[in-house]
Write a structure and sequence with these properties.
Blueprint: E1 3-6, H1 8-16, H2 19-31, H3 36-39, E2 41-42, E3 49-53, E4 56-63, E5 68-76
Parallel strand pairs: 1-5
Antiparallel strand pairs: 2-3, 3-4, 4-5
Length: 84
Protein backbone atom coordinates (compact mmCIF):
# COMPACT_ATOMS: atom_id res chain seq x y z
CA UNK A 1 0.00 0.00 0.00
CA UNK A 2 1.33 3.43 -1.01
CA UNK A 3 1.16 6.50 1.21
CA UNK A 4 -0.21 9.84 0.00
CA UNK A 5 1.58 13.18 0.26
CA UNK A 6 -0.25 16.35 -0.81
CA UNK A 7 1.43 19.56 -1.96
CA UNK A 8 0.07 22.80 -0.46
CA UNK A 9 -1.22 23.91 -3.90
CA UNK A 10 -3.27 20.73 -4.25
CA UNK A 11 -4.79 21.14 -0.79
CA UNK A 12 -5.58 24.81 -1.45
CA UNK A 13 -7.36 23.91 -4.71
CA UNK A 14 -9.42 21.17 -3.02
CA UNK A 15 -10.50 23.59 -0.30
CA UNK A 16 -11.85 26.06 -2.90
CA UNK A 17 -14.02 23.45 -4.62
CA UNK A 18 -17.61 22.62 -3.66
CA UNK A 19 -17.62 19.95 -0.94
CA UNK A 20 -19.13 17.17 -3.12
CA UNK A 21 -16.53 17.57 -5.88
CA UNK A 22 -13.62 17.80 -3.42
CA UNK A 23 -14.82 14.62 -1.68
CA UNK A 24 -15.15 12.82 -5.01
CA UNK A 25 -11.59 13.76 -6.00
CA UNK A 26 -10.17 12.79 -2.60
CA UNK A 27 -12.04 9.47 -2.67
CA UNK A 28 -10.63 8.66 -6.13
CA UNK A 29 -7.08 9.55 -5.02
CA UNK A 30 -7.51 7.35 -1.97
CA UNK A 31 -8.54 4.33 -4.09
CA UNK A 32 -5.24 4.53 -6.00
CA UNK A 33 -3.18 3.65 -2.92
CA UNK A 34 -3.26 -0.10 -3.58
CA UNK A 35 -2.39 -0.06 -7.30
CA UNK A 36 -1.43 3.45 -8.45
CA UNK A 37 -0.22 2.33 -11.89
CA UNK A 38 -3.69 0.94 -12.62
CA UNK A 39 -5.26 4.40 -12.20
CA UNK A 40 -2.56 6.93 -13.09
CA UNK A 41 -1.39 7.52 -16.68
CA UNK A 42 2.10 8.78 -17.49
CA UNK A 43 2.17 12.26 -19.00
CA UNK A 44 3.74 12.29 -22.45
CA UNK A 45 7.38 13.37 -22.38
CA UNK A 46 7.34 13.90 -18.60
CA UNK A 47 8.09 12.04 -15.39
CA UNK A 48 4.76 12.79 -13.69
CA UNK A 49 1.41 11.06 -13.94
CA UNK A 50 -2.20 12.17 -14.31
CA UNK A 51 -5.38 10.84 -12.79
CA UNK A 52 -8.72 11.66 -14.39
CA UNK A 53 -11.64 12.49 -12.10
CA UNK A 54 -14.50 13.77 -14.25
CA UNK A 55 -13.57 17.25 -15.49
CA UNK A 56 -10.63 17.45 -13.08
CA UNK A 57 -7.07 16.16 -13.29
CA UNK A 58 -4.71 15.19 -10.51
CA UNK A 59 -1.01 15.51 -11.35
CA UNK A 60 1.39 13.49 -9.24
CA UNK A 61 4.58 11.48 -8.92
CA UNK A 62 4.69 7.82 -7.99
CA UNK A 63 7.81 6.89 -6.05
CA UNK A 64 8.04 3.10 -6.18
CA UNK A 65 11.11 2.77 -3.95
CA UNK A 66 9.45 4.76 -1.15
CA UNK A 67 5.92 3.43 -1.82
CA UNK A 68 4.68 7.02 -1.98
CA UNK A 69 2.28 8.98 -4.21
CA UNK A 70 3.00 12.71 -4.26
CA UNK A 71 0.01 14.80 -5.34
CA UNK A 72 1.48 17.94 -6.90
CA UNK A 73 -1.45 19.72 -8.55
CA UNK A 74 -5.19 19.39 -8.92
CA UNK A 75 -7.13 21.44 -11.45
CA UNK A 76 -9.77 21.62 -14.15
CA UNK A 77 -8.86 19.74 -17.31
CA UNK A 78 -9.02 22.84 -19.52
CA UNK A 79 -6.22 24.69 -17.71
CA UNK A 80 -4.27 22.23 -15.54
CA UNK A 81 -1.67 21.47 -18.22
CA UNK A 82 -0.75 25.17 -18.53
CA UNK A 83 0.32 25.16 -14.87
CA UNK A 84 2.86 22.33 -15.14
Amino acid sequence: MYSLVFDEKAIAFLEKLPKEIAQRIYKKINTTKKEPFHYFERLEGREDYKLRVGDYRVIGNILQSEKKIEIILIGHRKNIYKKI
